[in-house]
Amino acid sequence: MRNRAVFLDKDGTLIPDIPYNVDPQLITLQADAIEGLKHLQIAGYLIFIMSNQSGVARGFFEEKMLVGVEQRIRQLLHEHGIELAGFYYCPHHPDGIVTGFSKDCNCRKPAPGMLFTAAEEHDIDLGSSWMIGDILNDVEAGNRAGCSTVLIDNGNETEWLPGQHRVPTITAKSIDEAAMLMLKSNQHELAGL
């Protein structure tokens, strides 16, 4: 049986959004994410981060700085008994100034490339997986990959650009609320079989 996953946006979803932050000491988890992630992990979901990190392409920080970010998030999650299965990021941006990172790519959300890569590397069934994020670009990436999706409606989505792939399966105020709704949705699907 293939794995199921929860793909999390990082900034504004799992951790408070501090633009272009790579200082591990400033990283904290959203308080209303921990219990939900525990329940999802117990239910058998692998937990992943999917993050656009255009600060690399824009020259705000070097790619190697993301190692400390990943280590800090892994540490914080581990302290609560939550294991991170993978940390994926896109360092590209078409308007970037750093050679090699200044480009269009298939990994920058709303493109689904990071999810496809994780699915291939971890034998993930995307149709049984979820993408959770705080903006519609996250939702679009998940929908385009074939996942169910959650929009965390915390005020970070400001553009509300409509589109074919930009309608979430579920809208919630937090990861904790999203997890409850996701698990309830799974129970209804199983009951209908």
What labels describe this entry?
193 residues, alpha/beta, Rossmann fold, six-stranded parallel sheet, 5 helices, 6 strands, globular
Brief summary:
The chain is α/β, with parallel strands linked by helices and 193 residues long.
Strand and helix map with partners:
Layout: E1 4-8, H1 34-42, E2 45-52, H2 66-78, E3 84-90, H3 113-122, E4 130-133, H4 136-145, E5 148-152, E6 170-172, H5 175-191
Parallel strand pairs: 1-2, 1-4, 2-3, 4-5, 5-6
Helix pairs in contact: 1-5
Give an overview of the whole structure:
This protein is of the alpha/beta class and about 190 residues long. It has a single domain (about 5-190), classed as HAD superfamily/HAD-like (Rossmann fold, 3-Layer(aba) Sandwich), CATH 3.40.50.1000. About 30% of the residues lie in helices and about 15% in strands. The chain has five helices and six strands. A six-stranded parallel beta sheet has the order 3-2-1-4-5-6, sandwiched between helices. Strand 4, helix 4 and strand 5 (about 150) form a beta-alpha-beta unit. Helix 1 (about 35-40) packs parallel to helix 5. It is globular. The mean pLDDT is about 95.
CATH topology: the name is Rossmann fold
Strand order of the largest sheet: 3-2-1-4-5-6
Order of helix and strand elements from N to C terminus: EHEHEHEHEEH
Counting DSSP E segments of at least 2 residues, the number of strands comes to 6
Largest sheet, in brief, is:
6 strands, parallel
CATH level 1 name: Alpha Beta
| Coarse structural class | alpha/beta
